[in-house]
Q: What sequence folds into this?
């Protein structure tokens, strides 16, 4: 019996996260870092980092934001051939990062 090649396929929404740099608060920020992610996309990237063949399935807008998101996923070795292009919008959210705080001793 021949060995079957296996591939993981993840399916879900990917969003654009905007965060101020360097633990700044929103009120202090004049620019934002852009990061693309979502549960299923993050799993796909993690699996690709471990050498597991993986494809990501979603729908991305056919514009520059969709292109940037597609390039982000592709750079980690995730298969993007099954991503459908269409629409004009990409989900977006904002996140303030807090610096690590040690507990008082």
A:
């Amino acid at each position: 019996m021949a060995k079957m090649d296996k591939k993981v396929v993840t399916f879900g929404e990917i969003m654009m996260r905007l965060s101020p740099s360097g633990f700044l608060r929103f009120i202090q920020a004049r620019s934002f870092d852009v990061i693309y992610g979502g549960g299923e996309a993050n799993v796909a990237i993690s699996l690709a980092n471990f050498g597991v063949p993986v494809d990501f399935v979603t729908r991305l807008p056919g514009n520059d934001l969709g292109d940037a998101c597609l390039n982000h996923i592709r750079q980690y070795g995730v298969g993007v051939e099954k991503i459908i292009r269409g629409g004009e919008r990409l989900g977006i959210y904002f996140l303030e990062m807090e610096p690590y705080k040690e507990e008082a001793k």
Observations:
- Residues 34-97 form one domain.
- Helices lie at 39-49, 64-74.
- The first helix runs from residue 39 to 49.
